[in-house]
Amino acid sequence: MLQNLETLAREARSWPFEQARNLLDHVLKKRLSDADRTAARLLIDAGKADEALATFEALRKPVLLETGYGPSGLPHMGTFGEVARTTMVRNAFRALTGDHWPTRLVAFSDDMDGLRKVPDGVPNAEMLREDLHLPLTKVRDPFGTHDSFGAHNNARLRAFLDGFGFDYEFMSSTEQYRSGRFDAVLLRVLERFDDVMAVMLPTLGEERRATYSPFLPISPVTGHVLQVPTLERDVDAGAITFDDPAGGRTTVPVTGGHVKLQWKPDWAMRWTALDVDYEMSGKDLIESVRESSKLCRVMGGVPPEGFNYELFLDVEGKKISKSKGNGLTMDEWLRYGTPESLAWYMFQSPKSAKSLHFNVIPRAIDDYLSFIDQYQAQEPAKRIDNAVWSIHAGDPPAVASPVSFSLLLNLVGVANASSRDQLWAYMGRYLPEATPQTEPTLDRLMGHALNYFDDFVRPAKAFRPPTGQEAAAFRDLADRLRALPADTTDGELIQNEVYAVGKAHAFEPLRSWFGALYEVLLGEKQGPRFGSFAAIYGLPQTVELLERGADGRLAG
After folding, report:
1. Per-residue pLDDT for 174 more than 70?
2. What's the confidence (pLDDT) of residue 324?
3. Of the candidates 79, 116, 528, 129, the residue with the CA atom closest to the CA atom of residue 342
4. pLDDT > 90? residue 155
5. Is the pLDDT of residue 325 over 70?
6. How far apart are CA 353 and CA 355, in angstroms?
7. Phi–psi pair at 373, nearest 5 degrees
8. Are 119 and 153 in contact (CB under 8 A)?
9. Sign of CA dihedral 380, 384, 386, 391
């Protein structure tokens, strides 16, 4: 599905393809000499990436994309966004290179970090308080399901990513440190200690500079991750000496999991040891990326290609904070919207700040559905830039839902529906061949619509009485619909009657007529295409609704 798209991918304008082209430039520069890079680029641009890999051995190693995760808490919206967006870049790169070049996506868990505070909303808080400063993979699991708190949250992360179908490799910091995977670079950090300090010290306050060390030794006595100065360094022995509050003057090797690095040196060390080619991060980490890139070079590595995305804002335009609880959780989005709609929202303008609140969900769902519909009619050059290409790795569904989410929300309200079965009863007239099995997306949307309506729409509904002009128009439209066959399900035919009534009753501008339908009949400022709504709700029911609205009974 991602093959034979090289030409389209080179011309694509959407941000995942821009990033994929940057990644390709980065990897070629990193792995090849100038002359070889020119030759390889000519082959790749000619759609012969397979020949380039066969010719240049340095290109055969997979391209590695990484995302990071701090397992002191559960996976959240940012976790999804980073993995989803990185996956979009990965798939664009695969298309750009004819899917000949192997890629890997690593989800890295910094689970050797010390537990610095007890998270909110976690059981057995006192037990966690007793385990403060231990590595997360040594902190007891307050849920009682795993060997450690880190293992519990890692399992949640993997279940979270698996639930969305992401293709990734999980990597544990604890396992990598203890296995010796990082040893060579850790010894290099010890050897180049002064160079590392020269990068870090200017970024720290005076008090912090006095005690800072890139090494965080693990106390042999308490097992705590210690933030203490390095007193002595023995490069030949590969060891550091420090004062352990529980054991006095202590010497430990920097290898084998006896120390970990402070997070910026740790990030740079990971890039170097794993040879990471690509990692994106939030705008708040721009300075950290710059400093870690310097450290990566000190360690003998090449910083990865990167991308800084904007952070989300709450409904008031304020920065989302987990401690304030002013954001939107994954569970909340998935109660009211589909995973695909969330991926669509993550795709859109990642460098622009956007509100992440309940009120964006209905629009995100319907926009996603409309992009699916557009995709089928687009030429290939347009399709590859359509968001749904990136969301579905080049293979979006042929159809989405025959009914919009906004229409479902109004149907729930007018029909006073409380179950999917009730909604399907209405759909049976409009789409007689449709079932939950043949229209699974529509079935899921019904569940989300019921939840969203109950929690947000119903409490905010505000019906108003009609004006004299509006009441007369409602009765006129009721008469016209009553003249149609009662089983009419042609939304366009009904919509034509709606337009005709608006013009006949001299609504100026005409949109004020549609505003009257929404405000008087549905209790909202906006609504669906009325002809489509009436086709699903049923003409007899719509006629009755119009008559009740004309009499002012809905506002009472």
Report:
1. yes
2. 55
3. 79
4. yes
5. no
6. 7
7. -65, -40
8. no
9. positive
